[in-house]
Amino acid sequence: MKPARIVIVGGGFAGVECARRLERKLRPEEAEIHLVGPSDGQLYLPLLPQVASGVLTSVAVVVSLRRVLHRTEIVPGLAVGADPKRNHIVVRQPSGTHCGLEYDQLVLTPGSITRIIDVPGLPQHGFGMKTLAEAAYLRDHVLRQLDLAAVSDDPAEQRERLTFVTVGAGYAGTETTAMLARLTKAAAREYYPRVDPAAVKWYLVTHSGRIMPELGDRLAARAKQMLARRDIDLVAGASAAEVTERSVTLTTGQVIPTRTVLWTAGVTASPLADHLGATTIKGRIVTDADLTVPGLEDVWACGDAAAVPNLTAPGEFCAPTAQHASRQGRHAADNIVATLRGNPRAPYRHKDLGMVVDLGGFDALARPLGVGLRGAPAQFVTRGYHLMALRTFAARARTGFNWLLHSLAGDDFIRIGLADDAPHTIGDFEDTGDYLTPEQVTAILDECHPG
Ligand SMILES: Cc1cc2nc3c(=O)[nH]c(=O)nc-3n(C[C@H](O)[C@H](O)[C@H](O)COP(=O)(O)OP(=O)(O)OC[C@H]3O[C@@H](n4cnc5c(N)ncnc54)[C@H](O)[C@@H]3O)c2cc1C
Question: Which of 42, 310, 384, 393 has a 20 to 30 Å separation from 294 between CA atoms?
Fold first, then answer.
């Protein structure tokens, strides 16, 4: 019999775990596996704030797909449309050309992008924190503000450049703010005699008034104390109402002069989710409990892009976390194997195992299996967890070595030269547009596979 052709869209937590499990469970004569993605590395997103703050180098947080996957064919490009009736997706290759890719089983794991709401000026002036390029750009931008403040004689300009505002206090926003506040204060203290460290000001704006609600009340209160010690102002009950090049106006009416607005107020599923003809909730593809997509034959979805029923909290969907994405990827693989072998499929069920938060230095919080930890024990658990979760020895070694080097030698506060006039909006960095309509998909597939 011809091997089944399994196509996975997206090489993130869910996609990579799915491919690894399929490689392990299916013999080459049973299935060929293809993974479509824009890069041949898996970005380990939870460590992105450490790239922005210079604790880790960019390559340390990317796991080579070719090291992890041994017989999966990596198809470079973006899946920009699909025709489930013809069992084909359309891939836009890095060269810009489109090609059709046939599948017997399709696994959709394209993850999420930054959710931009209708705030004037945000798309033009807000910074995101979802890609490696965004993290690297943010670090350069923040250090450039110190450089420019140090040579300016205009107090208003100095104030704008030394004030930084993050909107959104989930783990991405809180960790990034805590680490960058530490970085900018240290840089001002050590390398910029003309900049008063006390003039460097960070604001963390949260709509709900809570930070990292997944931590529970006691640890979240600890996190607030840690932020206060870093001189970070928590602005509760507000969001951004307007962003300009030189200020942000909050929904409370408060105007904060700043050249840096980091937007981490939520994510939304990859736009691909809306281009498949599947039912979506808040942009996420609705799945059944076994991770199949109702109404589309041989199509599965998991990770941030999927709204998977949470069987441990009836009526809710699983949260968009790496923990769920990895487990759902493996679960989808198990169910695909069951399907190919004519066995019954199992529903996905996973109770959250807790979370880990690194605020830089020895400030860390962890809640493994419901046990609250802080300080050095939490740091140990946090770093141990990340090292375990990185899939290759090379990635673990790079990350571990970076941590050691940074703790011994500190930071040199070096920019890599990403200039303000280079494209740097959230839309420039994330794959937000240019997906195909069903008619365009049909035209491309007709051209690729006439008849
Ligand atoms: C800064 C930050 C910190 C975080 N910290 C934590 C944490 O501490 N703990 C936690 O559990 N979670 C954390 N998360 C969330 C976690 O990273 C996500 O839930 C997880 O990455 C989701 O996995 P995924 O496989 O669905 O998507 P991703 O890991 O985002 O992977 C999706 C992949 O699909 C690719 N892709 C996108 N569109 C297409 C397309 N059209 N065609 C082909 N490929 C495509 C992308 O390039 C990417 O490689 C954090 C997220 C961020 C941004």
Answer: 42
